[in-house]
Design a protein that fits this description.
Layout: E1 2-8, E2 12-18, E3 25-32, H1 42-52, E4 54-61, H2 71-87, E5 91-95, H3 99-109, H4 114-138
Parallel strand pairs: 1-4, 4-5
Antiparallel strand pairs: 1-2, 2-3
Helix pairs in contact: 3-4
GO biological process, one term: rRNA 5'-end processing
EC number: 3.1.-.-
Function: Could be a nuclease involved in processing of the 5'-end of pre-16S rRNA.
């Protein structure tokens, strides 16, 4: 019973998975997608769901700082619907404001080169989204 965290962009989806107890998030990979062409990486997500025994999703929800929902937030809402229709288990939207910036800052502080940061930033953002969600569940 694991939770999968997803950071959905227009070209990639960062993927993180919880441990079996639902305490920690680990980055798994970045799935290449093509939003314009309608390729959302669902086949790869299906394989990961099966491999890790996922029973719930958390999708990053990039709201504007004034709490309104823009085009990227709407894209996350649509991805949520696609996951629900495909997998038939819970999909939560999780406010991800500033997670990509925080992930970038962590990687810079760890002295990761710009080229390497670009390859892992979405996966790191997915870890931060999922860890925030897992931490919130533990504090209830």
């Amino acid at each position: 019973m694991r939770v999968m965290g997803l950071d959905v962009g227009s070209k990639t989806v960062g993927v993180a998975i919880s441990d079996a107890l639902g305490w920690t998030a680990q980055g798994i990979e970045t799935v290449q997608i093509n939003e314009e062409a309608g390729d959302f990486g669902i086949e790869r997500i299906k394989k990961l769901v099966s491999e890790y025994g996922v029973t719930e999703f958390v999708v990053g929800y990039p709201k504007n700082m004034n709490n309104t929902v823009g085009p990227r937030g709407e894209a996350s809402e649509n991805y949520k619907k696609l996951l629900e229709e495909t997998f038939h288990f819970p999909v939560k939207l999780w406010d991800e404001r500033l997670t990509t910036m925080a992930a970038e800052r962590m990687l810079i502080e760890a002295d990761v080169s710009r080229k390497k940061r670009k390859k892992v930033i979405d996966k790191m953002a997915a870890v931060m989204i999922l860890q925030g969600y897992l931490d919130s569940k533990g504090s209830v």
